[in-house]
């Protein structure tokens, strides 16, 4: 979900309002995913590298996270959305960890999944999974996969990167081995149902060979 800062800058607004608009885009996109019948939607919300940002921006992001959980939790429960966190979210402030733990418990019975990457980095995830696999025995692709944060999620079919950036930025590197990718110039705060539907329609036109002919 990239482009919050540029969205705000183009409008002469502080970055905090760009992140707030990005939060609104999250709500729209989650609702659109449900309407389109998607089994799982994964959002990259806060990377392990984002700690390098200005303290004021990190504080804005943390406050936005608090408000989003408080505002959307009941809707998630009512709509049957299971919240899944990938990454080491316990590095956040205790009150945020408490809110996330409560949200995970409240939504555990959901039939479709919203996975949110928090304090996540794919290289760190792979290293962690390989270490855990080695503790059990032989390090194989199957052993590593069992220890990924995404072990209980369906395979990654489509990865969408917004704002014109054409790179993965340490996101789901292992899971993306045969994933279809779509890069759009749309800034994240402008993303919503029309953009997600168009992405799914584009995905439906692609022939997936998984290395075969």
From TrEMBL:
GO terms of biological process kind: polyprenol biosynthetic process
Cofactor: Mg(2+)
Known EC number: 2.5.1.-
Lineage top rank: taxon: Bacteria
Gene Ontology MF annotations: ditrans,polycis-polyprenyl diphosphate synthase [(2E,6E)-farnesyl diphosphate specific] activity; magnesium ion binding
Active site location: 2, 50
Binding site for substrate: 3-7, 15, 19, 47-49, 51, 53, 161, 167-169
Keyword annotations: Magnesium, Metal-binding, Transferase
InterPro entries registered for this protein in UniProt: UPP_synth-like, UPP_synth-like_CS, UPP_synth-like_sf
UniProt: Mg(2+) binding residues: 2, 180
Cofactor, free-text remark: Binds 2 magnesium ions per subunit.
Family from the record: Belongs to the UPP synthase family.
Record-linked PANTHER family: DEHYDRODOLICHYL DIPHOSPHATE SYNTHASE 2, DEHYDRODOLICHYL DIPHOSPHATE SYNTHASE FAMILY MEMBER
Function statement: Catalyzes the condensation of isopentenyl diphosphate (IPP) with allylic pyrophosphates generating different type of terpenoids.
Subunit (UniProt): Homodimer.
Name this protein carries in UniProt: Isoprenyl transferase
């Amino acid at each position: 979900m990239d482009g919050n800062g540029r969205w705000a800058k183009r409008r002469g607004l502080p970055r905090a309002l760009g992140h707030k608009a990005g939060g609104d885009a999250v709500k729209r996109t989650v609702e659109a995913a449900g309407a389109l019948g998607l089994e799982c939607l994964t959002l990259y919300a806060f990377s392990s590298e984002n700690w390098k940002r200005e303290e004021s921006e990190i504080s804005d992001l943390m406050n936005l996270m608090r408000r989003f959980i408080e505002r959307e939790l009941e809707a998630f429960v009512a709509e049957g959305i299971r919240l899944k966190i990938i990454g080491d979210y316990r590095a956040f402030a205790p009150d945020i960890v408490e809110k996330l733990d409560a949200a995970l418990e409240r939504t555990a019975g959901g039939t479709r999944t919203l996975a949110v990457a928090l304090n996540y980095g794919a290289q760190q995830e792979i290293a962690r999974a390989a270490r855990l696999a080695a503790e059990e025995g032989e390090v194989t692709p199957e052993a590593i996969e069992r220890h990924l944060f995404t072990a209980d999620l369906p395979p990654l079919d489509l990865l969408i990167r917004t704002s014109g950036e054409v790179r993965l930025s340490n996101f789901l590197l292992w899971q993306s081995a045969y994933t279809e990718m779509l890069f759009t110039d749309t800034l994240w705060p402008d993303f919503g149902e029309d953009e997600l539907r168009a992405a799914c329609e584009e995905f439906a036109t692609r022939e997936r060979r998984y290395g075969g002919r």
